[in-house]
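Work package 3, deliverable 3.1, input record:
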Amino acid sequence: MVINYTPIGIIKTPFKKKEGMPIQPTGAPGVKGEIEIYDEFKDGLKDLDGFSHIILIYHLHQSVGFQLNVKPFMDDQLRGVFSTRAPKRPNPIGLSVVKLTKIENNILHIENIDVLDGTPLIDIKPFIPDVDSPKADRLGWLDGKSNKMGDKLSDNRF
Amino acid sequence: MVINYTPIGIIKTPFKKKEGMPIQPTGAPGVKGEIEIYDEFKDGLKDLDGFSHIILIYHLHQSVGFQLNVKPFMDDQLRGVFSTRAPKRPNPIGLSVVKLTKIENNILHIENIDVLDGTPLIDIKPFIPDVDSPKADRLGWLDGKSNKMGDKLSDNRF
């Protein structure tokens, strides 16, 4: 079974190469980006400006191939790729919750963006804390480290 | 540009038809499901069992076509589809944060699952509150309603 998706827009950011980037939105406080939604999908943006935060689902277009075990940025051991947010995944899909500051026509102004310039956007969803933020009590290999993900920059490993 | 993904597994749940389902994980407290990860991706599950919650990204396989404006389950007005979690999206991708109770070989045991039986799984990510749960202060048309999404069942509109 093959699933086909078509980008609904493109994400524009200050990050032109994979090295030296924030690895999560928490590492990009105040970093501004823009999303251009393609004209044919523009009408789907109605009412979105009421939400302070949105979930972006995007295609990690510069990720080539995948590894089932990866050494993530936050660790020096090999971890199963599904227990990490590393980009070299069987399906290279990325997810970021970002701040939405303004919508002008088909342009979304966002903050705390941690993706490469030119990343194809697949979907946008409103971020709803009541359903998207359960109380997690175990964080596995990231326990005690996840609050430091904002301090880490990417290197050339992926 | 066309993006091709291949399912990494399949989600098994008690929900056999689209009507009468919970519309979000909060509407499925304790509802048990299983995910079968296909053998070739099994090694990517290493270390995932340390996390209490995981993000599932899946293909809404029974969603046919899309609408840019939809009447969501929680409202009686038309809303832009990107401001909703409705399934009839340009790219029918779903996202749920569920509880992970156990992994046995290639089978994930999960709770609070709100998807149709047989849904193809595209990706799994660990849920990390520090990066996935910003403080949202505006919820648009869902303001004052999002805590009631757990009480609502689906009907046949999508």
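The beta strands of chain A are 3-5, 9-12, 32-37, 53-59, 69-70, 79-80, 93-104, 107-111, 119-126.
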